[in-house]
Every structure is written in structure tokens, then in C-alpha cells.
Design goal:
Blueprint (H helix, E strand, L loop, with lengths): L1 E4 L3 H6 L3 E4 L8 H20 L17
Parallel strand pairs: 1-2
């Protein structure tokens, strides 16, 4: 899966699944616009697999009250 802007035709041709962002934005703001579609994809993938993203199976939290 590839997340790219509409100006990057080379990347769009390589991927089987492509999410195209509507326009090219400044390099400073690029991570923000790419993170949101990726988070939505991961949330849908977790739901499809029946996983709870808020409770990963390999992560435990230990807290101590002093």
C-alpha cells in the first residue's frame, strides 16, 4: 500500500493499493497529512482482524504508587 500525493505518478504505478492525497503540500507539513490516512487504515485493519488496538497483547503497564 502506498500513500502519496497526486503529483507522484511513479509511486502510484508501483503499488497495488494507493491512497492519493489531493495536492502536494510543503515538506514541513507532509508527515501530518500522511499520518492520518495511515492511522485510519490501521484502525480498520485491527477491526477486520478482531484486535483491540487499545490493548496490545505484548504490552503491559506497571505502575507503582509511592
Amino acid at each position: 500500500m502506498i500513500i502519496t500525493d497526486s503529483g507522484n505518478r511513479a509511486a502510484a504505478e508501483v503499488g497495488a493499493r494507493v491512497i492519493k492525497l489531493p495536492q502536494r503540500i510543503g515538506e514541513l507539513y507532509t508527515p501530518i497529512s500522511y499520518i492520518i490516512p495511515a492511522q485510519i487504515f490501521v484502525a480498520c485493519l485491527a477491526a477486520q482482524k478482531g484486535l483491540d488496538p487499545d490493548r496490545p497483547r505484548t504490552l503491559t503497564k506497571v505502575t507503582r504508587t509511592m
